[in-house]
Amino acid sequence: MSLALATLIHEWRRYQAAVIALAFSGVLILSLFGLITGLVRSITATLDRSRADLIIMPPKVESVFGPTAIELPSRIAPQIYLSPDVRDLSPWEMSGATWRNIPGPGEAQRQVFVLVAMVDPVPNAVTLPRDFGQATMTALQTPLSAVVDRSGLSVLGVQVGDMAIVNGQTIVVRGAVEGYANVQSPQVFVSRDSMIRLGLMTRGDKTGPLLVRLENPAAAVRARDALNARANGSYRAWLPGDLAKANEKAFMEEQIVGIVLGFSFILSVLIGLGITSQTLRGAIASNIREFASLRALGVSMSALRGVVLELSFWVGVAGLIATAGLMAGVLGLARVTNVTMAVSPPFVALIAGLLMLIAMVSGFLSLGALARSQPAELLR
Length: 380
What we know:
The chain is α+β, with helices and mostly antiparallel strands. Helix content is 49%, strand content 16%. A hairpin with a 2-residue loop joins strand 7 (163-166) and strand 8.
C-alpha cells in the first residue's frame, strides 16, 4: 500500500470534507441534467417507444420543441410509400388540451393542461408504444376512451373508470400505464378515432409526423439516406435515436434552461474546487512535521509532491464512490416519487472525469503548503 493511500485511510476524517464536496458537486450536476433529460423524454416517450424505424419530419424542423409547427403536406405519405424499403407508415399526433375532471360529492374540481397523444390500438401498429399490452389496447378501442400514467391520476383528479371533459367532450378513463410520468403536463393516450372526435388532429391537407416501419430495420441508415436524397426539401427522415438526441439538445439550448444549467455547472465546479483544495491544503499543513521528517531522511521535494498528487487522486476516487452512492439514492427516490430522471453513461463518464480533474487541480493548488516541509520544522 502506498504512503498516500495509507495516509488517506488512516486520517480519513481530515479529507472527509473534500470527498463530500466532490460528491455533492457531482450529484448536483448529474441530478439537474438528469431531471431536464427526464422531462424531455417524458414528453416524447410515446414517440421514442413507438415501433417506428424512421420518423419523417418537416425539412426545417430540428426537434419536436420549438415554434415551428410539425406539419407535413398529406401528399408526402404516398411519396414515402413508393420506397421499396417501407413496410408501413402512419401519421402521429400529440396536442395540448385542457382537462377537467367531473368531481363527486365533496371532491375538488381540477383543471389541468395535458398532452394528448394518439396511438393506434391494434397489434403491432407503428404508433403503438412497445410497452403497451393487450389490456391497454382493448381499453383504447372504445371511442372517447383514455389511458393515463398511473402517477398522473391524482393530478388529474380521477381514477380508472371515472369520466372527464377534454375539449368539451366527455371521455372515460379506462386504464392506467406506468413509465410515462410527466411532472410538467400529464400525458393522456387516446385512439386515432378519439383524437378526431376531440378535434385535436391536424386538419386540412396537413398531417403530423410520419412514423415509418421498414422491411429491414437493420438497413435503417441506408433507407434514411435514400429517402432524404429524393426529398427535394419537402421532408427529412430521422432515425429515432438521432431525433431523441436532437430533442434533448434543443431543450437544453432553451434560454432559461441553458442559463440554469450553465450557472449550476459553474457553481458546482467552483464549490468542489474551492472546498477540495482548501481541505487538502489544510491536511498537508497539519502533517507538515511528518513531511519534514521525510525530508530529513533524504526524501526529495519532488517525491513529496508526488505523494500529495497521489493523495489527491485517491481523494478523487473516494469522491466518485460517494457520488455513485448518493446518486443511487437520488435515482431511487425519483423512482418512488414518479419523477423521471435519465442519465446517460457517456455523461456519467464525463462528470466522473470532471470530478477527477477537480481533485487533481486541487492537489496542484495545495502543493504550496509543502514549502514549509523543511527539516528545521522539527526543531520548533
